[in-house]
Amino acid sequence: METAPAKTLQKRQVIFLAILLLLWEPGSEAVRYSMPEETESGSFVATLAKDLGLSVGELTTRGARIHYKGNKQLLQLDVTTGNLLLYEKLDREVLCGATDPCILHFQLLLENPVQFFEADLQLTDINDHSPEFLEREMLLKIPENVQTGTVFPLKIAQDFDIGSNTIQNYTISPNSHFHVVTHNRGDGRKYPELVLDKPLDREEGPELSLTLTALDSGAPPRSGTTAVRIEVVDINDNAPEFLQSVYEVQIPENSPLNSLVVAVSARDLDAGTNGNVAYALFQGDEATQPFVIDEITGEIRLKRALDFEATRYYNVEIAATDGGGLSGKCTVVIKVVDVNDNVPELTMSTLTSSTPENSPETVVAVFSVSDPDSGDNGRMVCSIQNDLPFLLKPTFKNFYTLVTERPLDRESRAEYNVTITVTDMGTPRLKTQHNITVLVSDVNDNAPAFTQTSYTLSVRENNSPALHIGSVRATDRDEGANAQVTYSLLPTLDPHVPLASLVSINPDNGHLFALRSLDYEALRAFEFRVGAADRGSPALSSQALVRVLVADDNDNAPFVLYPLQNASAPCTELVPRAAEAGYLVTKVVAVDGDSGQNAWLSYQLLKATEPGLFGVWAHNGEVRTARLLSERDAAKHRLLVLVKDNGEPPLSASVTLHVLLVDGFSQPYLPAPEAEAADAVPADPLTVYLVVALASVSSLFVFSVLVFVAVRLCRRGGAASVGRCSVPEGPFPGHLVDVSGTGTLCQSYQYEVCLTGGSGLNEFKFLKPILPNLPTQGAGEEIEENANLRNSSGFS
């Protein structure tokens, strides 16, 4: 009764603690040895060191030892010779039971450095067990009218050996009525059946005594016998028959005692005592099976606790016998269902005393886990706390290593308490916890860290030199000199930014200073990197990006592009007296070097020789007649136009226009834009922006054409005459070009330049806008009239 549990325990250990190699060389295979069971302890197994390619000296210096499941010592290593020896006599039936082949997995563990070699020892079976019947005598009651060829089942014998050493054949003592036939069961075992060769006659012999022999094929062969007593009973021609030949049921391994497993049922067509059926476990299973059957009801109940890890299924044969001695048989296949009743086990192999903080991927501990349950109940998950800088890495099968996930920081934490939790996946989940303490040794491993990865600073233009514009700050978690931070400006990659003349930094506290006054129009923004280095050895450093935004001040007054104010003689705008109200006299074009609302320009007529005759549009600077001209109006007019930006405080510029009213001058009427009809309606801000942008582009283009034509004509005419419009020399100042799209022209106009020839007479040509979209008829008349005017004025 104690041999079976011992075998089961050994079998569980062999199955679940067969571990593979840690740090095993890629492509290598386990070394396998073989020897017969029952070999005496201390016997030589193999030269393990030589087979694994290790020297004998390595075994001692590297702390070699044999590791077996559960730390049970079955083998021993002679480190002086490198030989593998038996520690004790090994019994294959105890260690492996019916498992074939019987392979014992063990490992050679080298501790310095940690390395595993896997090896297997296969125990071969010897014929050391004889077949044995559980009962000394079998009783068969056979009616005398049984037909020849009828088969009667006989109980089997047991042989703990395997292969050819187990039972191979059954024989019966010589007689004239029966012979024995040997059959194979589904699990590989053989069972005998008694076959009737000659009809029985109770009157001739009411009883027969035979000897059943079980034989194995070992060397030498062994055998076991039992007596078979046959009682010949009177006629009973119907044997009991089960409703099913095979019953299949499942039962959890934690079922309580006396639990109902299954109820079998057989019927007998006979009457009286010959029809009364009694149930019993067949082949002596009463002693070996954990079940009991009610002989009247056929209910099979549990009489002994089940253990899935020991036996996973049972084949129970049930016999139903009537009062006349006839019997029937069925098989009940009982599958034991695993429940999660085993807590995972953790075996620690290697544990280091301390770990340096600058060593990532450092092995802290090596351990193995096991769970004898099956399926999800035996599937395990290892974990540690989430807030620790350690990782659990599966290395080989159920072996794990605890390694550092990243370089440790002793300054933040010098000691870690790691709890390794091994949890299975069963229901309910069972777990095992193992606590270890990891000490961290200190090095200089913390670089200064800025409080921000990038800093954005703002400073208004025209600032005073040495102005404190902001600060950067970095901290170092180290101590002493390793935590003393020094700040510096890093070289910039942009050669157009003279960083050394723009800003400086205090190396002790990170304060930033502007070295000179900044100009928004010249430099709107710039960026650079600041470095912070500690004084450790080696020194560690980090850097951050600093972006400086220069805010615009309204420090640029509007500049008038047309008419030019520095000319030697002012330009006079000619207006025919026949011009109607809304006639375009000229257009004041101005730009502002500032941006945003500081560059939004508005126009205003400050002073006029005759108020009410001319008007200026506030958004585009167009000067138009406000009413019809009359003979009473003066011929010469002087207009003072104010150009003002929208800054705070606002800046302005003024320009003086000279207008000459002429008689008999034929000039087509230039109607005001359609928008003038709705002048009282406020303009949409987006429309104003678009108008300003379009006007700026148009004015620059017109001005370029004017300058080009003026230069060409001046070169032809030689010396300057009194009535000639002056042309500025040299390139136009770059800071007056509006590149921000905030100009003031709202329409595209082209103008002819008011230049005369070289005669010195008061001959002139009117400044005339050219509109390509005028009606065809009016355009033709205008062309003809202009041609006549040029011919009469002497222009070519």
TrEMBL record:
Alphabetized CDD domains for the sequence: Cadherin_repeat
TM region positions: 688-711
Gene Ontology BP terms: homophilic cell adhesion via plasma membrane adhesion molecules
Signal peptide: 1-30
GO cellular component, one term: plasma membrane
Matches recorded under InterPro entries: Cadherin-like_dom (IPR002126), Cadherin-like_sf (IPR015919), Cadherin_C (IPR032455), Cadherin_CS (IPR020894), Cadherin_N (IPR013164), Protocadherin/Cadherin-CA (IPR050174)
One annotated GO molecular function: calcium ion binding
Membrane topology recorded in Swiss-Prot or TrEMBL: Single-pass membrane protein
Compartmental location: Membrane
Annotated ranges, domain Cadherin: 134-242, 243-346, 347-450, 451-560, 575-675
Keywords: Calcium, Cell adhesion, Glycoprotein, Membrane, Repeat, Signal, Transmembrane, Transmembrane helix
Major location category of this protein: membrane
Protein name: Protocadherin beta 5
Native source organism of the sequence: Phocoena sinus
Protein's gene: PCDHB5
